TrEMBL record:
Coiled coil: none annotated. Keywords: ATP-binding, Nucleotide-binding, Transport. Belongs to the ABC transporter superfamily. GO terms for molecular function: ATP binding. The lineage of its organism: Bacteria, Bacillati, Actinomycetota, Thermoleophilia, Solirubrobacterales. This is ABC transporter ATP-binding protein. Residues 5-230 form the ABC transporter domain.
Amino acid sequence: MAQAIDVQGLSKRFGDKLAVDDLSFSVEFGRIVGFLGPNGAGKTTTLRALLGLIAPTGGTATIVGQPFTSLSDPAGTVGAVLDGGMFHPGRSGRNHLRTLARASGVSDARVEELLELVQLKQDGRRRTKGYSLGMRQRLGLAAALLGDPRVLVLDEPANGLDPQGIRWLRDFLRALAAEGRAVLVSSHVLAEVAQTADDVVVIHRGRSILQSSLPELLAQHAGGTRVAGPDVGRLAELLRADGAAVRAADGDGSIVVSDRDGVQVGRMIAANAIVISELAPVAQSLEDVFFELTGTQGGPA
């Protein structure tokens, strides 16, 4: 079976600017993939090339093995939310979906089902100009799902959602993946990506830095081992003599051994009858790993 999404050697040039440079990654069915990169990394350009909105300069971007423009049933294959969706301000949410549904050969019954699914049933008669940003995001999701597609491409779907809405979105996307759908999500909200995604793709300056499962990525970039207790001074001396990288932690007398895991440090403790009160791994957040991989500081894009 073809990959849900397959990007191979994708490049896109705008005049003298190379926005995407030989980018490759894939998305499998049943997986949520977080698509991450700093501002200007080329994420939106990549998504637009994938959805046939711009022509790539080189390489390929396919959905279920075909370019978007060659899909026989686009609405039934892929649904997308880019730029928060486009809505006529004088049209109700229900009529917005009905207009799109008729263009795609989808029944009004499906519209009602989706309004219920994204919790807009009671607001379906309201004009979209009165919708909050979070409501517009949910309406965009409903539009993306009209054709019951197997692949979803979402650009910043958590924008404008309150904490309850973000929790709803997380559960919503997990349910879609559990049905076997593939979900590619570009997001600024790294803490939420860490709770939602199965895999991450990180790009920088238009090029791929890595594609990895999220647990594997965090394990590979673990922050070392923290040790506390009355004998940590002696332990630090022994570890340094053994070539380990040791530093003080937080001014509380504990130490962090950045290049040894708990088993390795534990063996040193046992061999030298050292008394400790705490031995624990130091976890890094997805945000920490993102900054480390991209060499950036501050908020990612």
